[in-house]
Amino acid sequence: MKSAPFAYHRPGSVADAVEVLAAGDAKVLAGGQSLVPVLAMRLGRPGTLVDVTALPELGGLGIADDELRVGAAVRQRRVERDPTTARVPLIGRAMPFVGHRELRSRGTVCGSLAHADPAAELPAVAACVGAIVEVTGPRGDREVAAAELVTGAMTTVVGADELITAVRFPTAGRGEGFGFAEIARRHGDFALAGVAIRVRAVAGAVKDATLAAFGVSDRPVVRDVTDLLAHAVTEPDLRPATDALAADVVDTAGDAHGSTAYRAHLLGVLAARELARAHRQALPGDPS
Q1: Whole-model pTM above 0.85?
Q2: In whole angstroms, what is the distance from residue 168 CA to residue 185 CA?
């Protein structure tokens, strides 16, 4: 299939891009790995594509003030291979599961956040670690907590006249442990269920633990699971609690790939395993 006709605009600055977006009936093009198939299937028919790929303002990747800042034009493959990404371990663990290598070579991190696919890994990772999304529009700049970015399937709080310019991930510190896992029919397919987990410990005790589930609802589902680690820290002991959590979290309808109950089972298993793994990393000397 072919897309409907559209105008193409390559802005010279972020301000120029925002001006075109504010005029209406326009969509941002960065990596295009989600947008182009949507256009080809005519599920979307914007009058103008605003190509921000070459804007130097959006191409930065680096560490500042204990945060990894990823510009909107930065490719996923660059983030995957850049040594600074090691400062945010969950990105390194999640990135190999984001589509296929060829897609990551063109797709952008911010593009994945903006697209807000319910089965996407990066929105869940961002929400789990408390990332901040930078947004600009005709009314100025603002910041959005990643956990509040997605409002539903393929829907975010970013307005049609606004542009995500960057996302900032907090870097990991001492006493932090992480877990990430997903189940898909084939590697690179959409996740049937997945989890991203962060555990923080202070003075030999768990301070807080956060779980973000994806592929099981219309958006990443974030839960404080600190209390679970107060009663159990091994995978078998955690299973009853994570099974109960999964039964509460999973609300997606069943389909040809898996029923609601099957997804809940997968989430319960993954959550227990990765929560135990993150706890061991945060408290490596814990005899339990």
Answers
A1: yes
A2: 31
